[in-house]
Amino acid sequence: MKNRVRNVAMLIFLGGSLVLTSCRDNKNNEEDTNHEMNSEDHMDHDNMMDDDSNDSAMMESSAKFNDDQTAAAYQQYTKIQAALASDNPQDAKDEAKRMITNLAQNEASKTLLAPTKEIANSDDINVQREAFSELTSKMGGLLDGALASGEVYKLYCPMAFEGKGDYWYANSKEIKNPYFGAKMLNCGRVEETVN
Q1: Residue 45 and residue 36: Cα distance in Å, rounded?
Q2: Segment 96-119, tens digit of pLDDT
Q3: Do 80 and 99 touch, CB atoms closer than 8 A?
Q4: Long-range CB contacts (within 8 A, 24+) of 109-112
Q5: What was the pLDDT predicted at 187?
Q6: How far is residue 99's CA from residue 47's CA, in Å, rounded to a whole number?
Q7: CA pseudo-torsion sign 67, 112, 127, 97
Q8: What integer best gives the mean pLDDT of the chain?
């Protein structure tokens, strides 16, 4: 009986250690993130999301696409990703609605429609994050061979969805985790460079 209790305690300890080390940031990154978040708290978030120049600066990509429709779908995708990373379900919902309008005009990207509608029709950020996972999976197919030049990064968080892990695409190697937001904003790694 004592051995069993000791083994269970050891497993709990090891599991906890893995969780802590898997996505632990160094102290400087944590302080930088907190500073960034505090400065963002003082901004008018609604104006930031509506201002195209701010969106362009935040979402700037070196990637150039073979067609404008794929470029537009990817740009909307990154806006949804940014909203989820900011723990903002309303912005994710609004950006998904805009993406639906763009997708209606693009036959190639209609596969993205179902998960995008799910994001647009939900106020629950957890439901949106699950739909974003499906959207990411379908976005991979759209990005395959779609870049004329530049790069898009496929990022991975091993802790997403109770340790199952999941991916997302981004314009930069900087980790802004859409599956955890502020809870574990910098959890993840670059898994692949798409070019």
Answers
A1: 14
A2: 999 998 887 777 677 899 999 999
A3: yes
A4: 109/69, 109/70, 109/73, 109/142, 111/138, 111/141, 111/142, 112/73, 112/77, 112/138, 112/139, 112/142
A5: 93
A6: 19
A7: positive
A8: 77
Angle between helices 125-143 and 68-85 (to 10 degrees): 150
The length of the chain is 195
- Quickly tell me which residue has 């997403």 as its tokens: 160
What pLDDT digit, counting tens, does each position of 163-173 carry? 999 999 999 99
Give the closest residue to 178 by CA, choosing from 112, 144, 134, 140. 134
Token pair, residue 27, equals: 């102290």
What distance in Å separates the CA atoms of residue 42 and residue 34, rounded to the nearest whole number?
13
Handedness of CA 183, 166, 151, 47 (dihedral sign): negative
Report the distance separating Cα 194 and Cα 151, nearest Å. 6
Q: Looking at the DSSP assignment, which residues form a beta bridge with residue 189?
A: 156
